[in-house]
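SAMPLE LOG
Freezer: B-3
Tube label: C17
Construct: single chain, 359 aa
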Amino acid sequence: MEMRVGTGEKANILIVDDITSNLVILTEMIKSAGHVARPVTSAKQALAAIEVQMPNLILLDISMPDMDGYEFCELLKKDVKTRDIPIIFISAMNSKEDKIKGFKLGAIDFVSKPFELEEVTLRINTHLKLYKMQHELEVYNKRLYKMVGDQIKKIAEEERHFIYALAKLSEIREHPDGQHLENVSKNCKLIAMSLQFSSRFESEVTNSFVDAIEIAATLHDIGKIAVSDTILLKPGKLTEEEMNEVRKHTEIGAKMLEEMYEVNEHNDFLGIAIDIAHYHHEKWDGTGYPKGLKGTEIPLAARIMAIVDVYDALVSDRCYKDSYSHERSMEIINEEAGRSFDPDIVAVFNKVQKQLRHG
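STRUCTURE (predicted):
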């Protein structure tokens, strides 16, 4: 039941007063002002009239039997459907205290008895104009909010496409088919969503975390852009010196993303992407790199990524190895629970294994 007063439309004004002579006088005044008058003699009748048609304004007497004007005003202001209806008190009670009480309850004005045609007309028209302006402002704000929201969504989508393209630059040498990025992205999101049902993780894994890790996961190896093809694509076993070069990709990637984050701090996924890039090779028992973090010292997003990344490496062909079956890959993951991986995340990983993306 939305209230509107457009150009050329007659306002619908409800008059609530238990004295018939007052109703007759105010009805004639409202009609002469070009509006529609709806007179009733009690709060009960007023509620019934509001159910039939929402008024644009209410003229409300204070002294009435059963429920006085103050009580009725308070009742209307508590109801979300009627709280915005402008209320003008009409009463012979015009002391400072009476008016303050009425304004505190939500009334917008007072008209004292006996009524003067010019005063009543001016006050009604003034408040109807204010109401109309308020309504138009609300409509404008809703449209503006939608426009801003649409623009933010568009920018976010463009940023996602840019980030994915950037991630592919670092991955295309190792994984030219692009499946690795898709796999780790979807599997990280799947695991994060599943962790929301765990009492240990439910407070940490919010909906925004789930959305952010999906795109952040694609940037886990962005630092490999600085690793030479000779090392990255070497078919045989790497020397210790070559392995040290590869290990540098975690800190290089984190530094690259930190520089991006400095000018894009509103992006939640960049903060998570930094954690993933930096720490996804850390191990639960503290034997990983680059910092040797242990247990929950490792950020949650990186602990998720560690399992997902290893799983995808196991089930996929690499230049240095053939793929393992899903079953064998799961055995290896479980063997490393409590050593390389957070055992609680591995437990969830087992529960959703049939939904994992691979191949």
